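Risk register update: the risk of archive-format incompatibility is retired. Evidence:
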Amino acid sequence: MEITHESESAAVIEAGDEAKIVHEVAEKKQLERELHWTLSFLEALADSHIDGVLVVDLQGRRLLQNRLMSTLWSIPDFIAEDPDYQKQLQYVTTRTRNPQQFIEKVTYLYAHPEESSRDEIELTDGTVLDRTSRPVIGRDGTCFGRAWTFRDITYRKAALDQLDEQAAVFGARLRALGAILEREGSDAGGR
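Archived output:
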């Protein structure tokens, strides 16, 4: 009789465990669906962004990268799709006009995860990128990684340079005109 009692208890425990397992599996599947939805949403958001976007974790592993990031840097697909982000970092470094300065800034920011940064990077093909980097910080203050954005400002920079040149020419002409008027004023006053 005792054996039967133990068998009945084991059967009850097994049934309870089975229901618990089924519930845990259902919860896990729901969490996976929510995670998949969130990831799909973030990827769509990143791909619709007007900037190249790259997000890395604290170990420097690529978590998210949009297509424009690859386009701006002319990153070949086999590098952009490689899980080893270091290969991509090495590739983009070679595309900059000042590789040493570029990699020093990247290294500094990875070593100082709480800092933000904004600067311009000139590529070997003449493209100028506006680079912004900020920490990815959770609501509780935990730093999870770093977000980088890159915007092609080549045409805007060229237009500003042209405006600066035109302003310099205009300023020189204005000064020359002022000198002529001053000289004529002196000549008229001296008569």
